[in-house]
Design brief:
alpha/beta; Rossmann fold; SIR2/SIRT2 'Small Domain'; 2 domains; six-stranded parallel β-sheet; three-stranded antiparallel β-sheet; 13 strands; about 35% helix; elongated; binds 2'-O-acetyl adenosine-5-diphosphoribose
């Protein structure tokens, strides 16, 4: 508590000085010098500069063969048309084969060495944080390179080159497999939200990066952090429903801004 109190004094002084200079990137960089505990929530926007399409933003919504992404990515579709669900996820895994982590992924991976504690929660299923070197990433929506038996829940890891998916059937019980990702209408993996919420409640600075902040429960994490007294920073070229809650909104692409911090 003492640590958090002295950090808050620092926040107050920095805000007083920086409000005269008006440079938000400098303001956040300065606070990072004395921060000990950092929590980060990322969304599709952090991978946009790697070439991964976002779901929303820029005034549009992703559509696959005439179907909105939240219909094809739903628990109901797994039940009614699993091959169509696989077609969509195999397509996305095909796109990902050409994608590499960008400077934002690498900068966040380096933060692990820079701060006493760094918790990274991502809504992304693309695996790019881990590819950049981040450890213990809390993947609240699963991972596109993993499949799961619909019957016995055995997990299968796929390589980037396994497009289309492999195996096609469970090697243990011969039942169909499905992508090991959280679909609309499904629960998050056990304990994933709770771990993120604990880090949010204890951090000095919480970053929300490249997310439209529309999909709950992940979108509640910045609110948890703010209520617990964290300094809240958003990095996104667009306004989101969270922007008004943030202490600082850094408007622009994550790859450019995160590396400046
Ligand atoms: P969205 O596609 O909803 O939002 C992407 C956000 O990234 C938008 O707010 C953009 O303005 C922002 N953005 C675009 N380019 C950016 C850049 N270069 N740098 C920073 N930000 C940028 O993605 P999510 O919020 O991640 O869930 O979506 C949440 C969940 O909805 C996803 O995990 C997925 C989807 O349905 C499931 O599939 C369960």
């Amino acid at each position: 508590m003492k640590g958090k109190y002295s950090f808050h004094n620092k926040v107050f002084k920095t805000l007083q000085v920086m409000s005269q200079k008006g440079n938000d990137v400098e303001k956040v960089s300065d606070l990072l010098k004395s921060a000990k505990r950092i929590a980060v929530l990322t969304g599709a926007g952090i991978s946009a500069e790697s070439g991964v399409p976002t779901f929303r933003g820029g005034g549009g919504t992703a559509v696959w063969k005439g179907m909105r992404f939240d219909k094809i990515s739903s628990a109901e579709m797994v039940r009614s048309d699993l091959p169509a669900v696989w077609e969509w996820f195999d397509y996305r895994r095909g796109v990902l084969r050409a994608c590499e982590p960008n400077p934002a992924h690498f900068a966040i991976a380096e933060w692990q060495e820079r701060f006493e504690s760094l918790t990274l929660v991502t809504q992304n299923i693309d695996g790019l944080h881990r590819a950049a070197g981040s450890r213990d990433v809390i993947e609240v929506h699963g991972n596109i390179h993993r499949s799961r038996c619909v019957n016995c829940s055995k997990l299968f890891q796929m390589s980037r080159d396994d497009v289309p998916h492999d195996p096609d059937m469970c090697k243990v019980c011969k039942s169909p497999v499905r992508p090991d990702v959280v679909l609309f209408g499904e629960m998050l993996p056990e304990g994933a939200y709770e771990k993120g919420a604990e880090a949010a409640a204890l951090c000095d600075i919480f970053f929300t990066i490249g997310t439209s902040a529309l999909v709950y429960p992940a979108a509640a994490l910045p609110e948890v952090a703010k209520r617990a007294g964290a300094f809240l920073v958003e990095i996104n070229p667009e306004e989101t429903p969270l922007s008004h809650l943030c202490d600082v909104s850094l408007k622009g692409p994550a790859g450019e801004i995160v590396s400046k911090l």
